[in-house]
């Protein structure tokens, strides 16, 4: 049964507002899907709706029956400008769906349009009941990548230092280098504090939980902010304990034992953070006497937008127009592209030397792929050490320029490997296509590493597959990609790294064989 109060809501405003919020959520779900750090984002819209419903039972909405001419003009102009700005943003996002700055711009514009619409026929004082539930949505918007990386690195560093110091106190002679903890003397690595152990997920989850519980228990705003800070501190401390526990296991039982306990420790950390914050919230509610209602009371009053027909209809048509023009713009640019065969990458998993490797969340956050795998093995014929890396982007996942900046000379250079030479591209004939291969040689401690990579697009112009894009990943490059109608139409990145081989010529022959064996048509 649909409540009568829902039936009385004006459908046109809800549809038009729903279309704008739907576009925003559709944009954000790209990151929510591919980045585990922000997977909680799917829950945030539900929490926002619950807040609005719960707030409706206590809110007083006062209609503005005689709005001034200035107010009418201001709200009309603000809504028009906001809606117009969505057009270029949506066209740009199609070629740059991974652009976090675009997420924030989109979120603020949609929130601004929402409040402007509400202000048209309600008093400004009435809008305060919408502020907290609506702004709460911002916790689901991914942080700028530079902030993300910097905070993660700081947390990793602090966790590594803490675990090392406690182990010293307990009588275990260890030292740390970067995020690696080693036994002094033997140099044996007993633990590696990776991005998953940095505590960044727990920190972000604590903010969401603290802000929601602060609302649920009806704490004053300053108490909610203090509670949020306390939640961040609690998450930080709990993660330090988790890292120490895993490191202690590595010292006493061997580093191989950490893998068995890593995920259970992560789940335990999440549960501990929630229990800790919930307990603190209950204690604060007793002290402040801010208890939630005995029953879940609420209504849909806050879902009622100003009852207009013309304006919401125009907004809805405009949203559909944006989606339609965006589709036509990129479709007509891609009409000459033809689909390539659907392929899969097969690694020699039956070899005794084969070992699958996990991929760090940082790499996934940077590349925005939807599927990936990494592995090492020893080639039984040549006895050389092989490493394979593969990742997959579906249509509109990430900017095509992402393949231009994440090059081996940058990624491996940051890990201390020195680039010896970048060779001219060569081609490998396979499945009736000419695969464009990039080749590099690196050196570290006197040992050479030969890297070969290619892209296999879902669509292409000819039987000769394109090389990696050269466009920049900066503001100019992103906008130019949208103007040219170039989006990620679907790509696969295939990389092979070869070690313990005589020279580049021999490595090249092995790489050609690996590409032909591994790329198989489905």
Key structural traits:
522 residues, alpha+beta, 3 domains, 8-stranded antiparallel β-sheet, 16% strand
Walk me through this protein's architecture.
The model has no long low-confidence stretch (mean pLDDT 84). 30% of the residues are buried. The chain is of the alpha+beta class and 522 residues long. It has three domains: 4-57 and 64-121 and 298-333, no CATH class; 145-288, no CATH class; 338-521, no CATH class. The chain contains 16 helices and 15 strands.
Q: For the record, give the distance between the C-alpha atoms at the N and C termini, rounded to a whole number.
A: 48 Å
What's the number of structural domains? 3
- Strand fraction: 15-25%
Radius of gyration: 27 Å
Which spans have pLDDT < 50 for at least 5 consecutive residues? none
* Tally of separate helices: 16
The whole-number mean of residue pLDDT values reads 84
**Biggest sheet descriptor:** 8 strands, antiparallel
How many beta-strand segments? 15
Percentage of residues in helical conformation: 40-55%
Shape estimate:
flat
- Helix- and strand-based class? alpha+beta
Element layout with pairings:
Elements: H1 4-7, H2 11-34, H3 44-56, H4 69-95, H5 100-119, H6 128-135, H7 145-169, E1 174-177, E2 180-183, E3 189-192, H8 200-216, H9 221-253, H10 256-288, H11 310-333, E4 338-339, E5 343-345, E6 355-357, H12 361-367, E7 371-378, E8 385-393, H13 402-405, H14 408-411, E9 418-422, E10 426-430, E11 433-444, E12 447-457, E13 459-460, H15 475-483, E14 491-499, H16 504-518, E15 519-521
Antiparallel strand pairs: 1-2, 2-3, 4-13, 5-15, 6-7, 7-8, 8-14, 9-11, 10-11, 11-12, 12-14
Helix pairs in contact: 2-5, 2-11, 3-6, 4-5, 4-11, 4-15, 7-9, 8-9, 8-10, 9-10
